[in-house]
Protein: Kinesin-domain-containing protein
Amino acid sequence: MDIEAKLHRHERMLREAQDNLRETQDNLRETQDNLRVCREDLGRERETMSTLKATMSHQSDSNLTLAAENTALKARDGARQSQMDADAQQIAELTRKLEEESQKNAALNWEAKENEALRRKLHNTVQELKGNIRVFCRVRPVLPSDLSGILGGSSAGTSVALTSTEDIEKLQEDLTANMIFPDHRDHKEIVLRSSSKSATGQERIEPYAFSFDRVFEPESTQDQVFEEISLLAQSCIDGHNICIFAYGQTGSGKSFTMEGGSTKTTKGMIPRAVEQVFRKTEQLKEKGWEYQIEGQFLEIASYNETIKDLFGKGEIGKKHEIKHDLKTGSTRVTDITVVALNSPSQVETLLASAQSRRSVAATLMNDHSSRSHSVFTLRLSGTNASTGESCKGCLNLVDLAGSERIDTSFSSGTGGTGGLGSKQDRLKETQSINRSLSALGDVIAALGEKANREGKHIPYRNSKLTYLLQKSLSQDSKTLMILNLSPLITHVNESLTALRFATKVNNTRIGTAKKQVRGA
Ligand SMILES: Nc1ncnc2c1ncn2[C@@H]1O[C@H](COP(=O)(O)OP(=O)(O)OP(=O)(O)O)[C@@H](O)[C@H]1O
Structure:
């Protein structure tokens, strides 16, 4: 039993050992599985680790780059900051300089205003010294139309057949009066040689010398004439009353001088004066001046002294009267069109339409325009808000009726067939023109006498023209007469009469002016 028990016990122990072995084997397998999983995990972890290491190394590179960039940015920032500091300093410096400059500018502006006031005073003094009455003489060139009567054949049968330029030049010479302009430096003299027959029938050539403030030869341009006149236009801007007359026989160039042609070089004194007034008043804006400019244009018919409104709508039978306002010292023509002027081109258009209206009237009424006085008036009123100054000026540009001598006008047969066409009417008209022209001469002469004798009566009322221009024909105003002369030999007598009339005017001394005049 003991053995059997021992065997059983050994068998049980063997089974237990076998069970243990199986369990251990199972454990071993499980451990081996765990180990494999761990190994796999470890492998993955290693891979992750190496990826992380690579990423870290890349990050560290990036970090280094960023750090370098950061340093560079910081350096640039520093540079910018110092640039900004420098700029701010410069701006402060510039602001200071600007402040200084604007202070200087204000001082200069003030000085300019004072200089402008001084210039006005000096300009006026210069004009006064030159004479408040001045006379210019202008001889027009010989025109193709002067030759055309002879070249083309005239009613008097004086037709000449000319073949060469020499012939034409010779004819031109024959037609031209003997005029000399000896004063090449100052252009103040004109000598007219006229031939006459003595009692014994001998031909005598007599020289007549005249001296004026300026003599313009036939070649002179509108530019040259305006150069002398522009100072007067300036005086008007400065607040003076100015009268510029064109005087001379029909066809001597009065309208050409005053109104002129349509081109830049031929345009006359009226458009040039208007342009200058606009240009100068525009420039004066800088000095604080603001100007209002208005204009009127009228015609005084010489045969009945009626006034026609050239800027008007052409209403027939409208009566206009001249009124002087004693309080304001201004002159007004009733029912006349006064236009606010704002540009030279507007004035050009107005003048052109006035001119075409006159031309129609001239055709209808037998060249009536040359038998009337036209008066273009430009009124300026300026105020300076910064200096408190103000001024009013008036510029009258007058194209006088032709100053024919009665014998020529009456016998010339140019009376035509219109309403004023009879010789009797023509005679009356010429007499009436001469009356109004001599009324003008009388006013100028009386002004000259008044300068020497206080209280002298000035006969302004003797003609509508002088009555209209009363305020601009006084000792305080400036007058310029432009004597227009024909160069033709056939007009020598008219030219002599006109030169003598102009000399009388030139001999008149008004105001402080002193003139050196040589009589004829
Ligand atoms: N300086 C000049 N240069 C060129 N042509 C001129 C000049 N002066 C006048 N003329 C011409 O002479 C002609 C007569 O001139 P204008 O009509 O001006 O004379 P006027 O004295 O005004 O005559 P009216 O009294 O008949 O009006 C015109 O054809 C004009 O163009």
